[in-house]
Design a protein that fits this description.
single chain, mainly alpha, Serine Threonine Protein Phosphatase 5, Tetratricopeptide repeat, 12 helices
Length: 189
């Protein structure tokens, strides 16, 4: 039943009948609360319509039904950050940390929230975990370097900023920042 409602919803959405699609998606979730595709589609539509509180409710229900879905936890945490609740977002990510352990984006998002709260040792650990999974993410090397520098580990920060530059994946602004930090942290010879 849920799959039939989901397929009908997708048909409505593809025809531009979004309101009817949303109702079918709600029905699919009533029929099967663990229909993750229906929930993801519904949440995406609600967020697109700037109905973030309603989307957050469906994400919370999704986590209750599928606690191993790290994507729901990340998306709910992003909604919380948009509503100025970074501490709550961090607590949520930490609650579902086991589900996100193998997800580099999850680990880096957790690191960024830890860093915002000046919890640099934990942030560095999370950035390192993310970088073990995805070592070419230059912006995460920058995040790691910032936390290392905050912990007065300037040699490690210098190396991390250099690694960030070496990925060639940074935006021009972040690349310029990394370049500046490398020059300032470079050991005297």
């Amino acid at each position: 039943m849920a799959e039939t409602l989901y397929r009908r919803a997708v048909g409505f959405i593809n025809q531009g009948r979004v309101s009817e699609g949303i109702e079918e998606l709600r029905g699919a979730l009533v029929a099967d609360a663990r229909h993750d595709s229906a929930r993801q589609t519904l949440v995406a539509l609600l967020l697109e319509q700037k109905r973030s509180e309603e989307a957050a409710g469906f994400l919370q229900q999704g986590l209750a039904a599928s606690p191993g879905n790290s994507g729901f936890a990340m998306l709910l945490a992003r909604v919380m950050v948009e509503h100025q609740d970074a501490p709550g977002a961090l607590a949520l990510l930490q609650k579902y940390a086991a589900a996100g352990a193998g997800n580099a984006d999850y680990r880096a998002f957790t690191a960024a929230l830890l860093q915002q709260q000046s919890r640099h040792r934990e942030a560095a650990d999370e950035y390192l975990a993310a970088l073990r999974i995805s070592p070419q993410a230059g912006v995460w090397w920058v995040g790691l370097a910032i936390s290392q520098e905050a912990m007065d580990r300037k040699g490690e920060a210098f190396e991390s900023f250099q690694r960030a530059r070496g990925t060639r994946s940074l935006s021009p602004e972040v690349a310029a920042y990394a370049e500046q930090r490398v020059r300032q942290l470079q050991p005297a010879q």
